[in-house]
Design goal:
GO terms for molecular function: nickel cation binding. The chain is an alpha+beta fold. It is built from eight helices and seven strands, in the order E-E-E-E-H-H-H-H-E-E-E-H-H-H-H. It has a three-stranded antiparallel beta sheet with strand order 5-6-7. It has a two-stranded antiparallel sheet with strand order 1-2. Strands 3-4 form a two-stranded antiparallel ribbon. The chain is globular.
Amino acid sequence: MSVGSFLLDDGPLCQTGFRRGLWCGAGGHDEGSDHDRDVDRELDLAQVTEDLSASWMRGGEPLHPSCGVTLPDADKPGAYSWCKAPGLAGQPVEVGAIARQQIDGHPLIRDLVSQASTNVQNRVFARLLIAMEAWVRALRPGEPFCEPTQLPDEGESVGLTEAARGSLGHWLQVRHGRILNYQIIAPTTWNFSPRDAQGIPGPLEQALVGAPIRPGEQTAIAVQHILRSFDPCMVCTVH
């Protein structure tokens, strides 16, 4: 999933920046496989929910982040993560460099994903395809970096961007001139999502299935490589 970002008139990226969308695919096609499973889709953010079933959080049914709650419950039976389980239409999604490049249609990434789906190597390749050097050269110290605005008495808003680690969303409610509710879904929250009420694991847990553990290993090297390929930030996820 990519919420789209970096809208530029010109420069090193495409004319419209990274586009928003959802890519659904099995990857690694075999002859005679169902190619219809690999499709680009429009992104409907109204279908985003947060499941708390396996999180050390109080809550019932999955809620949209605009009305979500964050109430810790460290003794919750069956929980094993401080991370919520965000989902899109009830399904976990991977975000990050490879998702962004795949949805934007980068030919190298599309070819790599078609051959081997998302893996450590392909995530690293996708992360190298960035325009950071040009952006640094474009910095102008002393120029304004934000636009001040007046807080309304009543309102709701959502802020979306593609952070380096993936899709980031902020949902805000204002009542009587004060912040009533503020919920964030960070990129690592998407990728490190624990299991939801249906027992569906998030992208990292799925990626770890079958990871080899060599005889005598106290800390599995393969597990470390897979985990770090998601470029996690657990601090952002937990707070």
